[in-house]
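ESCALATION

Customer reports they have been waiting on this structure for their group meeting. Please prioritize. Original submission:
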Amino acid sequence: MTVTAQTTEATEQAASLARPLTGRVAVVTGASSGIGEATARQLAAQGAHVALLARRADRLEEHVARIEAAGGTALALPTDVTDPASLTAAAAGIHARLGRVDLVVNNAGLALPDVLDGDGSVGTNWRRMIDVNVTGAFAVVEVFVPDMLAAAAERGHADLVNISSVAAQSVLPGFAGYAASKAAFSHLSRNLRARLSPADVRVTNIEPGAVDTELRDHIEDPAISAAVKEAVGSIEGIPSGDDVAELIAFAVGRPRHVNLSQISVLPTREA
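Update from on-call: job pushed to the front of the queue and completed.
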């Protein structure tokens, strides 16, 4: 082997290590902010072609512009995971522009406080969280699982990453609906792994604790919002969306025979 050939091979190996997700087509829901936005950036930086799905079109376009400026490939698709037609249209757009999906980060979600109306009706916040955190999350799987199965059959593996919450495993006063929706999502993940892992689709369920994102800013009740901010502010060293994104990229970058199936992400000082 000539010196030039050796240099070329070494360069290619270095590039492969630096961009281990090259050639993969990824979908990230809830990509307009927080964990979703950070994950889209991280996956693109590692070589994946990334479709960003969320409702806020202006945010998505800004994120895509930054990814492309950094040399990545990304696509903005305004999408509502609670609308089947919207999801179907997004999938069609991804197929046309990027190709078949082999990596899905199922991240879209809401964290809203309990609102007990007292009139026997189902609370508005409860309905919204079940629609997004459970029904919408399952709809994302339903739309993209044929792609993941086909990709796994061809290349030996595909990845589904579900972003749940430590609330799935604990009592969260004032947020029983949120905790219940995430408990359902975590259990869904376990069942999906039982269904999909024999076909080489790896399912990873990630349960973050307190993360420094804007999710808690969506709480409209001033008293509850203030209490949540105080509780979170009392914890030193809260992980960022980037911290969780790095973990997601690590999990999907493992050798195809390795599945990190369940991961909790907590601040070191969170009891």
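Sent to customer with the following note: The chain has eight helices and seven strands.
Escalation resolved.
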